[in-house]
Amino acid sequence: MVDYSHSRIVVILSLILSSIHFINLYLAQSFLWVPLGICLILNFIYITNDLQKFKSFSRSMQIPIYLTRIVLSLSLIIVLLSSIASLINISLLLFGEGSTDLLIFLCISSILLFGSSLGLIKKLFV
Fold first, then answer.
1. What percent of the chain clears pLDDT 90, i.e. is strictly above it?
2. Which parts pass through the membrane (predicted)?
3. Domain ranges in the chain?
């Protein structure tokens, strides 16, 4: 059996970065913190619980499984975008503007975050 602990670490990092962006949006008094908060809660439930538990819960609430998959996929994409936005904000604070190190760091980190989100979306449809 293959151990995917490296992917789990990236997913947890993505949730942490999205939580930082959530706090920044709340402090900036933007209303975008509400959908991001809902997406964070859905993703946290999806990541910590088994997918079969999530599917059985949606069946018990009489929610079609395709709707559950669409909502979770959109939620994962929203959290991915907010984690990349938070990563950009943090890296601009650390490196400053106009640094080529910043571009390389952002590209590698964004690819890692994108890969982990894509893996979770793929897990939804298997």
1. 19
2. 9-26, 32-49, 70-96, 102-121
3. 5-124
